[in-house]
Amino acid sequence: MKTAFITGITGQDGSYLAEHLLEQGYKVVGMMRRSATPSTARFAAVEDRVEIGHGDLLDQSSLMRLLDEHKPDEIYNLAAQSFVHSSFHEPIHTSDVTGLGVMRMLEAVRLVCPKVRFYQASSSEMFGEVHETPQRETTPFHPRSPYGVAKVYGHWATVNYRESYDMFACSGILFNHESPRRGKEFVTRKISDHVASIVFGEKDQLALGNLDARRDWGFAGDYIRAMHLMLLADTPEDYVISTGTTESVREFCRIAFERVGLNYEDYVVVDPRFFRPAEVELLLGDAAKAKEKLGWEPEVDFRGLVEMMVDADLQTRLDMYKEPTRGFLPDTLKVS
Questions:
Q1: What is the mean pLDDT of residues 198-204?
Q2: pLDDT (tens digit, 9 = 90+) per residue, 107-149?
Q3: Which of 41, 101, 154, 319 has its CA 20 to 30 A from that of 91?
Q4: What is the tens place of the pLDDT at every residue in 213-241?
Q5: DSSP 274
Q6: Residue 130 forms part of a structural domain
């Protein structure tokens, strides 16, 4: 039985990846920071099958101890300070965790288990002020946030360790990927959660920033399959993972409110507080390499993703309130 070691297991991607690898017959070890109130809600369905190890990307000794203890076959480094907006307010912390944290993990791998297969979660935010559209593996990076800068550092550190020490280390340059497990601080989940709260009378409006920003949005459950495929490949390479389509925040709102029979223009207001100091206007990925070499294809389209997220937040309210005060519920939802 193979052992997979996942940092960031409490996050969206970590929880989906843990479920996927368990289905594939892996032993899964998840790294968590020690806390008085551990957050395991996202992988609650498989929590009893996941072994937890306490460690921190800020503490290399803890990383070395965990790798020596569990001797994994595969490592998925998903942990990060991953909220772009917060990175402008916490640039040093973001750099230390999201950037230097990768170097600490790579050095721990080199010293403890250099033959392990290592995956680094890179990001489309590295492209920032894009130099070509669509963006592919060869597109130059021009990050527009401290988060993007930190991700570039982690990405090139992974390339450097691969080339310097012959390590099986690769990066997935994942474009925006969402799900009902996305944190509410992210714009997509903020929209879906507010739609549900408006339907059930909790709120009257939704304040957002740049409605015209465009992203290549996919489903996180599809993207974690690509991570696994990268570590099953014969050679370590970096891959762009994306849908190859782009939609605006405005379009996300339109479909989300349309799902409950409402017009987004009646509820969405633009608030300058939510604009970034340096905006990324357009991200669009070209995943041709992943499709050709890994055989990967996304299965959930944009509308399906938006409706999935809205339905999940509606179901949460439905379990609490039983019936909405405005709008209507899709037929797929059930009163518990």
A1: 93
A2: 999 999 999 999 999 999 999 999 999 999 999 999 999 999 9
A3: 41
A4: 999 999 999 999 999 999 999 999 999 99
A5: G
A6: yes
Question: Are 274 and 171 in the same domain?
Answer: no
pLDDT in tens, 73-114: 999 999 998 888 889 999 999 999 999 999 999 999 999 999
Ramachandran quadrant class, 210 (left: phi over 0; alpha: psi -120 to 50; beta: rest):
beta
**Do both 34 and 129 map to the same domain?**
yes
Q: Is 119 a catalytic residue?
A: no
For residue 53, how many C-alpha atoms fall within 13 Å in the half-sphere facing its CB? 22
55 shares a domain with 195: no
CB 189 within 8 A of CB 230: no
Assess whether 179 carries a catalytic annotation. no
In angstroms, rounded to a whole number, what is the distance separating the alpha carbons of residues 95 and 100?
6
- Write the CATH number for 252: 3.90.25.10
CATH of the domain at 100: 3.40.50.720
Residue 104 lies in a domain: yes
Check 19, 125, 178, 251 and give the catalytic one. Answer: 125
Residues 137, 191, single domain; the answer is: no
pLDDT at 336 over 70: no
Q: Are residues 18 and 127 in the same domain?
A: yes
The reply to whether 295 falls in a domain is: no
Instruction: Verify that 59 and 100 share a domain, yes or no.
Output: yes
Backbone angles phi, psi at 206, to 5 degrees: -130, 120
Instruction: Report how far residue 239's alpha carbon sits from residue 122's, in angstroms, rounded to the nearest whole number.
Output: 10
Band (pLDDT 50/70/90 cuts) for residue 279 is low
Q: How far apart are CA 11 and CA 31, in angstroms?
A: 11
Give the per-residue pLDDT at 277: 74
Domain containing residue 88: 3-178+217-241
- 273 neighbors 231 (Cβ within 8 angstroms): no
The answer to whether residue 197 sits within a structural domain is yes
Catalytic choice (62, 82, 122, 123): 123
Q: How many domains does the chain have?
A: 2
Other beta carbons within 10 angstroms of residue 6's beta carbon come to: 30
Give yes or no: 147 in active site. yes
With cut-offs at 50, 70 and 90, classify the pLDDT of residue 42: confident
**Are residue 227 and residue 274 in the same domain, yes or no?**
no
